[in-house]
Amino acid sequence: MSETQPTAAMADERIKQRSRLREAMIRPELGGIVGTIAVFTFFMLFAFDSGMFNSQGIMNWSQVSAQFMIIAVGACLLMIAGEFDLSVGSMIGFAGMMIAIFSVTLGWPVWMSILITFAICIALGAVNGFIVIRTGLPSFIVTLAFLFILRGFTIYFPQTIERKTIIGGIKDVAEGDWLAPVFGGKLFPGLFNWFGEIGIVDTFERGTRAGQPVVDGLPMLIVWALLLVVFGHVLLTKTRFGNWIYAAGGDAEAARNSGVPVARVKILMFMFTAFCATVFATCQVMEFGSAGADRGLLKEFEAIIAVVIGGALLTGGYGSVIGAALGALIFGVVQQGLFFAGVESSLFRVFLGVILLGAVILNTYIRRIITGEK
Amino acid sequence: MNPIIEMRDIQKHFGSVIALAGVSVDVFAGECHCLLGDNGAGKSTFIKTMSGVHKPTAGEILFEGQPMNFANPRDAMDAGIATVHQHLAMIPLMSVSRNFFMGNEPVRKTLGIPFFDHEQANDVTMEEMRKMGINLRGPDQAVGTLSGGERQTVAIARAVYFGAKILILDEPTSALGVRQTANVLATIDKVRKQGIGVVFITHNVRHAMAVGDRFTVLNRGKTLGTAKRGEIKHEELQDMMAGGQEMVQLEGSLGGTV
Ligand SMILES: Nc1ncnc2c1ncn2[C@@H]1O[C@H](COP(=O)(O)OP(=O)(O)OP(=O)(O)O)[C@@H](O)[C@H]1O
Ligand SMILES: [Mg+2]
């Protein structure tokens, strides 16, 4: 309107001035941030001398958290796009088993086994997404079917081929392979050696490795986790595709009417979730040197819990990758911390339940402030 | 002058339901063409065939003289048809500026990677909303915190900003208060004066009379005819919408208050 008044006069009398602090606090990740601080404070106070915060201890819970992070990033983007994938855990078991069968049983080169497994799993993710889009069924049901189907195959294949449910010997066949270290290797061994020399990292005092640092590099698992978190965060918040992810989950019909290719976005997110599960599986197989039919059990729920602690809305359209990463960190620290603190391991669930409830209540409150939701 | 869009004998069937049984409407640049009709008359279905949401079962669409076949909303949008749907194409959980640019995000390349240009999106959103007389707390304010009229205005501002030739508004005033309705009607008038053809759907004859240049009444999937402004009276439109005589009776029993 041309009769615009000077801006000072236009300041709306119905908007209360809000403090900077409050402004900075009101963000989707707040639940995750508060939870992380609470968890670290707790263990600093009660388990500081347990070895949890020396270099080995840190590496221990970092690795467990990194595992959670890898699948949480996929689950997070998919949940924001408005869908679930309950087949993540089975996909982890399945992918690991495929790599083992291809490389050990069939004797294919490890790099080829890994690449083909990635191709199969991403294609399965696409099938998941395609069925959800085509039938309009809730992804909850479709992926639940895949949870059983994939787990069934993961047990069936090794049993019929090798008459056992664990296939080992992957370390041997991976020797000298160029792709295996991308998942099972360690970065910066020189740096960690130096850390050992100057005393930041403890060194072995006896045995064949005397003088070497107890933590001899940054595991690729952690590198993958960090890369995926950065990738997911940038994709979601800084690209137009990210806007489409929010839109597809916020209101698929409104998004479609505005020209957002909703079907493509959702199917791609199912594929990305499958990719993350396969990264998880490949790192695990390379670390253990074996694949087991029971690997990845219940991982889908742990991923979803991490995502929800991180502030995402179960019904889609809202959430944060950073939040999900913090949720995964909380998960890992609590699980390993209780072990360090010598607490009865069954209490892990109690602790986790309390954190989940607390974070979700806080998140709901924050979200209502931000979105005006009732 | 030729119409921008000409819809000829459009039919739309949903299974056994005949939602449209041959509707013809054309829209010229700079006019406000009102579509009136009772609940279930087929107004929303009709404009959805115009905006690429539904494919017509039969009939012809001419856009600037050329036969057109919209495969999806994107096609129609690219041709210059912007639609503000009855159930707003707005996502409450997302910010105003993310909504404003939904499906049309501006990008800026850094290191060859196209990133969402939030700065430009935010600036444009604030500016366009200010032009419409709405002061946002910030471009990152969620649409869910806006009032119905404000949301409506965001949707209209968005359509105008993206250079629509045809702006379709499906019952934009039905949920609004007096002052907000007046705002939306004023916006329609402003948009029309920029040479955009407006299709304005409403139940409210008074709202239609306030801005309309032509009026088409739909009844049970058919057109009852199109009239120019000044050729038809308020009461006649009202009667046509209700399908004729019942309205007269109703009016009698309600003491002429409808
Ligand atoms: N997707 C669909 N599937 C089946 N029937 C439909 C569908 N969409 C609309 N209809 C039917 O078509 C008819 C016209 O509906 P439409 O939404 O176009 O009415 P309208 O004139 O917009 O009504 P209102 O004023 O209430 O918005 C209705 O009988 C409706 O039930
Ligand atoms: Mg309608």
Automatic annotation (TrEMBL), chain A:
- Topology with regard to the membrane? Multi-pass membrane protein
Q: Which GO terms describe its molecular function?
A: transmembrane transporter activity
Which cellular component, as a GO term, is one annotated location?
plasma membrane
Keywords annotated in UniProt: Cell inner membrane, Cell membrane, Membrane, Sugar transport, Transmembrane, Transmembrane helix, Transport
InterPro entries hit by this protein: ABC_transp_permease
Q: Where are the transmembrane segments?
A: 30-48, 60-81, 88-108, 114-133, 140-158, 178-196, 217-236, 267-289, 301-334, 346-366
Pfam families in UniProt: BPD_transp_2 (PF02653)
Q: Where is the major localization of this protein?
A: membrane
Q: What subcellular locations does the record give?
A: Cell membrane
Keyword DNA damage present in the record's keywords: the answer is no
- Looking at the keywords, is Transport present? yes
Q: What does this protein do?
A: Part of the binding-protein-dependent transport system for D-xylose. Probably responsible for the translocation of the substrate across the membrane.
Protein name as it appears in the record: Xylose transport system permease protein XylH
Organism annotation: Actibacterium mucosum KCTC 23349
From TrEMBL, chain B:
Q: Does the keyword Disulfide bond apply?
A: no
**Entries under Pfam families matching the protein:** ABC_tran
Please name the InterPro entries in this protein's record: AAA+_ATPase, ABC_carbohydrate_import_ATPase, ABC_transporter-like_ATP-bd, P-loop_NTPase
Task: Tell me the ranges covered by the ABC transporter domain, including all copies.
Answer: 5-245
Q: What are the record keywords, sorted? A: ATP-binding, Nucleotide-binding
Q: Which Gene3D superfamilies match?
A: P-loop containing nucleotide triphosphate hydrolases
Q: Does the keyword Repressor apply?
A: no
Q: Which PANTHER family match?
A: CARBOHYDRATE TRANSPORT ATP-BINDING PROTEIN MG119-RELATED, SUGAR ABC TRANSPORTER ATP-BINDING PROTEIN
Protein name according to UniProt: ABC transporter ATP-binding protein
